[in-house]
Write a structure and sequence with these properties.
Length: about 675
Amino acid sequence: MCCTGCAAVAQAIVDNGLTDYYRTRDSMPESPREAKPEVLGQLSLYDHADFQKTFVRALAEHEREASLLLEGITCAACVWLNEQHLAGLPGVLAVDINYATRRTRIRWDDKRIKLSAILQAVKRIGYNAHPYDASRTEQLARDERRAALWRVWVAGFGMMQVMMYAFPVYIAGKGDMSSDIESLMRWASLLLTLPVVIYSAAPFFKHAWRDIKMGRAGMDVPVALGVGAAFTASVWATLTQSGEVYFDSVTMFVFFLLSGRYLEMTARQKAVSVTEALARLQPAFAERMAGYPTQQDVQQVMVADLRINEILLVRPGAPVPADGVMIEGNSHVDESLLTGESHPVAKRIGDALTGGSINMDSPLVMRVTEIGEGTRLSSIVQLMERAGLEKPKLVELADRVASRFVGVLLVLAFVVGVVWYWIDPSQALWITVSVLVVTCPCALSLATPIALTVSAGALAKDGLLVTRGHAIETLARATHFVFDKTGTLTTGQMSLQAVMLTEAGKVRGDDLHHLAIAAALEQASEHPIAKALRSAADDAQGIIFGQIQAVAGMGMEGQWQGQTYRVGKPAFVAALSGQIATLPESWNVMGETIVALGSEHALLAYFRIGDVIRPDAAGLIQSLQQAGHQVTLLTGDAEAVAQSVGAQLGIRDIRAGVSPDEKHAVVQVLQANGAVVAMVG
């Protein structure tokens, strides 16, 4: 062993009966650092309740759950080793490690084992665990991208420069180039290829050497063999001024392979960042009303400290801290990121509230019913995290084939070398190298990542992020296409569709004037309808309202030029002047909202606001149906809205008002019936 740390790791693995790790891993972890006594002693700090508040949840009386970041994970076998090792500790109830994010969730009985003991157990097998920190995760991802990008840049620069020297030799006819010039071209190519082989291709050689020491042949073995053989033969040809050189092929091979792996890595990290952004919808703090209902005082507490049945105050514009039930107030809640509902949802006493949604209008009081992993937001995040666990099936197949192919290749090259040594010793080296170069599984190692990269790039241009390589091959066999509505078939943003003036409104101004009045009255509101009116009004025309007040669930009221104006629901606005709001039949468009503007004297205008269907959505649905695919609209939006969108796009299978979990169940039912489903949303 190189050090006592490695010896301790190996001993811990053997003692716990986890030696299968050595047969299943496909890369080596970092060598463990020597654990100093003072470092091990500091782990006891993790047992303090105050220190645990930010990353540990109390699920039951003695049951705890921590979110940790596990460093040193290099392959699926590392995940298996840690899960098996930790699961075997007395008191550990569950271990869940996400290979893509290195994020680890550990649940344990605090009476039987302490968190510090769990962290020490992780260190004993050569890994490091610490509280999950999104900023630290992003820093690790940036470092990984930076290192990979530098290797790609060096390989790309070397490839371009080497090709400049190789091209004249290719096109030169017999006698067109003197031997000293050709020698100069070779030496220049050699110098430019050295950084590519030593620096850019270093991971291939490093991983190939580890594979050989472990008695297996992964994809990096044929890559390193091809690069090494071609480069060594080219160096020999340059030194002896005989034979052919392959410097251009070496640099191009390394550049394309590194580029494919870099793009695959960035796609994976982007998928992780989407999950993290959704997780950040959960606020860090909440306002607790400990003395409710006799006292209205609020106390700011951490969301991690919340308990079921506690009473919380949620102010306008603030996110709902946890799942619960509304017990006081009257407001609208924006649930678009969680359910796909494009319109703010009206909430009354007794209605359910979802953690992560945004309170829009007025303060509300809620009772907590679910916390931590029990919330709907957490379940959505868990579904997304699970998407990053799979390895592309094509890559797995290539790995299995390569391990056998390399053995055959080595035997073949050896036989060819021996035969040609007896036939013509002067040609034996070059013919053997030719066999290695020609039969090197470049196609096997390049075709899979490059094909996946090209496909992923083409899809990314259309806004589709590939997080699993095998999904691309499955897409070609898809029989059912299931679409979300909000933000997918529609733009996901409320906008002004039409303006209609009343007779009194026509006398007092035009469309733009009344739109400016409505926008000015909505200046203080963050409601999506208010934003749509403000976006449609290019100029407020110097209109400034006073004494503005919001009437929850109804609209806005204010004073301008000595008159009272209202904008909001037609009945609310009409009541100001004692009139009755009447609309033509053509304005009763399903899924769209009608807003009125009026003064204390008369109704002035109506505004129709709705979510706009994307201009290319109809053509997409039509082309899929003409190709024989089944199309389903699956949305969390209301039935009327879904039916309206489905009718405009020609979709017959429409399912509305479904939650993310229910959407997942619908897809599973389709798959169980033999369908290959592509879900777009």
